[in-house]
Amino acid sequence: MEPYIIWILAAIALVIVELLTGTFYLLVLGVAAMAGAALAWFGLGFSVEAVVASIVGVLGVVLVHRYRVSHGQTPGSINAIDVGQRVTIESWVNETDGLARVHYRGTLWDAKVMGERGAGTTFYIRSVEGSTLHIAPERV
User: Fold this and answer.
1) Within a 10 A sphere around the Cβ of 25, how many other Cβ atoms?
2) Domains and CATH numbers, the chain
3) DSSP state of 75
């Protein structure tokens, strides 16, 4: 198999995985792989292809990271769309530790109650950490 085809297949795979994650980092690596494919098409050696693809990849990742930081897109803000949404406590996993199961988006989620527990079962999402919702009785 020709080297440029391998680079193109790697680029396609990276872009497909990027479509599932939405972070733009893998898209940059896909572009870097396409740069390697272009050099392979012109018959340059693998070491040149790899060095250029690495440089394009590193520069692209640095630029994407700087853009995300400057626009307030830190890992904690990725799920900002969930913040402020209402959830309903279905059951307590450990009430003394504030761990509960809540109903949100049509399914049950793990949740940790932040601050006062209040009375009632309606809470609001404060933040998301992995698959655990941090909730409080008052809206943000």
Assistant:
1) 17
2) 3-73 (no CATH), 86-136 (2.40.50.140)
3) G
Task: Per-residue pLDDT tens, the chain, 140 aa: give them.
Answer: 999 999 999 999 999 999 888 778 999 999 999 999 999 999 999 999 999 999 999 999 999 999 888 876 555 555 567 788 889 888 889 888 889 999 888 888 999 998 777 667 788 988 888 778 999 888 76
Report how far residue 46's alpha carbon sits from residue 24's, in angstroms, rounded to the nearest whole number: 26
Produce one character per residue of 43-57: b if its CB has 16 or more CB atoms within 10 Å, e if not. Answer: eeeeeebeebbeebb
Give the span between the Cα atoms of 137 and 86, in whole angstroms: 9
